Amino acid sequence: MADDLERLWVPYRLAYVRGEAGDPADDRCPFCVMVDEPAEDDLVVHRGSEAFVALNLYPYNPGHLMVLPNRHVADYADLTPSETVEVAELTQQALRVIRRVSQPHGFNLGINLGGVAGGSLSAHLHQHVVPRWGGDANFMTVVGKAKTMNQVLEDTCAMLREAWTEED
């Protein structure tokens, strides 16, 4: 049946929608893999001594970062004092870097503790840093249940890595 809808293709989301993201035979924590097996092509923007910053593989908006402790820990209350400080400092730095690079109008910061709280990878704590712009939750998101992205992850990652280096 024909309609008047414009089609916006976001094929990178299909694996996530189907629940097929990652290798099903690999049951390792994907965040621990990023710590244990750093790769040139991973989405890590910055590595600290006890925490790191990475792009969200399925971002809500361009520049959607996560700040994670290196250690596999699920609950914020279980972070060591030094991990807590580094996660907080990297979150502040992420805000500064994204502001300089993308000039968002605001941010959402959040930690989902447990699956019922929305944490799809709740076994490894991660703080979301989501840049927001007026109108970014438009009819596509609300009515169409789809999100359009205007930049590929690799470009976003390269841009944020460069800006992070300038911040240091």
Notes on the structure:
There is one protein chain. The protein has 168 residues and is an alpha+beta fold. It has a single domain (27-163), classed as HIT-like (HIT family, subunit A), CATH 3.30.428.10. The chain is 32% helix and 15% strand. The chain contains five helices and five strands, in the order H-H-E-E-E-H-E-E-H-H. Strands 1-2-3-5-4 form a five-stranded antiparallel sheet, with helices on both faces. Strand 1 (44-47) and strand 2 form a beta hairpin. The radius of gyration is 17 Å and the shape is globular.
Characteristic terms for this protein:
168 residues; alpha+beta; HIT family, subunit A; five-stranded antiparallel sheet; 5 strands; 32% helix
Write the layout of secondary structure elements.
Elements lengths: L13 H5 L11 H7 L7 E4 L3 E5 L9 E5 L11 H22 L3 E6 L15 E6 L6 H4 L10 H15 L1
Antiparallel strand pairs: 1-2, 2-3, 3-5, 4-5
The ordered H/E elements are: HHEEEHEEHH
Tally of separate domains: 1
Structural class, by secondary structure, is alpha+beta
Helical proportion?
25-40%
Radius of gyration: 17 Å
Task: Using the coordinates shown, work out and report the CATH topology.
Answer: HIT family, subunit A
Main pleated-sheet profile: 5 strands, antiparallel
Shape: globular
Within CATH, the superfamily carries the name HIT-like
What's the total helix number? Answer: 5
Percentage of residues in DSSP E strands: 15-25%
How are strands sequenced across the largest beta sheet?
Answer: 1-2-3-5-4
Q: Which CATH C-level class is it? A: Alpha Beta
N→C terminal distance: 55 Å
Number of strands: 5
Compute the average pLDDT. 81
User: Uncertain regions: pLDDT < 50 for 5+ in a row?
Assistant: none
Q: Return the CATH architecture.
A: 2-Layer Sandwich
